[in-house]
Amino acid sequence: MKKILLIFTLVFSLFAESLQKLDSTNFRESLNLKNDMEAFYLLYGKYDGVEQEAYLHIKKNYDRKYIANIKLPKQDNINIDIMLDSKDLKFGLNNDMLFINGSYNGVDFSFTQDSNAKLNKIYFVESSISKKINVNDKYRSEVTYEDVITKPIILDSSFKNVDVLNKSMSNALNIEELEENLDSTLQDKMNDYGEIDFNVNFSSNDSVAYIDDDILEIDTFIYEYTGGAHGYSMETMQLYDINSGEKLPSKFEEVFDINNDDEFLALLSSYLEPQKDRLFIFPIDTLPSSFFIRSDGIIFMWDIYQIAPYVSGMITTKISFDEIKDWLKDGVVKDYINKRINNARSNNK
């Protein structure tokens, strides 16, 4: 009798699991998400009873299963990953606007696609290439070349300057053109790489790191493995003007006016002091490789090996807009940050 009950329970569990997967698949289809696509949504709602914005990225995890990744721009320490098929997650559409609610580590959340935002949805298209190559090696008979790339595309035709922004971000006006471009890029890169006698792995994945009604920041996480003990990773970003669709200056040297390296390095070192045991030398003597805009300031980043060993990873520190504003070059980014500072002061009155 126990064996029969066990078999029945197992069969029912598998049936229930298949229904959950079907629900998840149907939901992705309702969002126009194909298997090679992901999506970003700007949401507004409550987390632990507090009203705030949220970033939702429906994407694949390392096991290639879809998850809901939720980040709170004003709470850097909140990063929620929930399987899209989880019973702790409920989602749907209301008047074509996404809603999502659930519980994570005992904390309830409920969010809806922000209908007041100028831009609240961005799709991401993934393309990959993989090839097995026979080698004459006493340790192995074949090696693998793999490469994956993900780029954004906006499908909302009512969004102002959508074509300009799509061209700026991905040099494509629609999904079909973007897929063709990505496939061609990967094929050309593999052809140019030449012969290999070890496994090679590349990936370049874009994601939304920050968005408001003025700017959009797309971060690119790059990973390369071309042999050796470990791979190499780095992160870059590109800013876009939401209103014009054009690219904005995004490199450190394009945005920051550093006439006195020593003074600026001293400022950075003061913020890095809690991490000094992870660094090669302290105070530091190297300017950051990149920067990233966040809701409450600017994150500065040093690539692996720049100021710390590999085991320390990429080193980052955040400085408020108010403290960094005098180091900015005149231009759109400086004007934007001054606007953020003035808005914050007005809200605090």
Describe the structure.
This protein is α+β, with helices and mostly antiparallel strands and 349 residues long. A hairpin with a 2-residue loop joins strand 5 and strand 6. The chain has three domains: 112 residues, Roll (PH-domain like); 128 residues, Heat Shock Protein 90 (2-Layer Sandwich); 97 residues, Actin, Chain A, domain 4, CATH 3.90.640.20. The chain is globular. The chain has seven helices and 16 strands.
Provide a short characterization of the protein structure.
With 349 residues, the protein is α+β, with helices and mostly antiparallel strands. It is 27% helix and 39% strand.
Chain-wise SSE layout:
Layout (H helix, E strand, L loop, with lengths): L1 H29 L6 E11 L2 E11 L5 E7 L2 E9 L5 E6 L2 E8 L2 E7 L7 E14 L7 E12 L8 H9 L4 H19 L6 E12 L3 E11 L6 E10 L5 E2 L3 H4 L5 H12 L17 E5 L2 E6 L12 E5 L1 H4 L7 H17 L1
Parallel strand pairs: 9-10
Antiparallel strand pairs: 1-2, 1-7, 1-8, 2-3, 3-4, 5-6, 6-7, 8-9, 10-11, 11-12, 12-13, 14-15, 15-16
CATH topology of the largest domain: Heat Shock Protein 90
Q: What percent of residues adopt helix (DSSP H or I)?
A: 25-40%
Strand content: 35-45%
What is the CATH architecture assignment of the largest domain? 2-Layer Sandwich
Structural class: alpha+beta
* Cα shape: globular
Average per-residue pLDDT, rounded, comes to 88
Number of helices: 7
Number of strands: 16
* Strand and helix order: HEEEEEEEEEHHEEEEHHEEEHH
What would the keywords be for this entry?
349 residues, alpha+beta, PH-domain like, Heat Shock Protein 90, 3 domains, 16 strands, globular, disordered N terminus
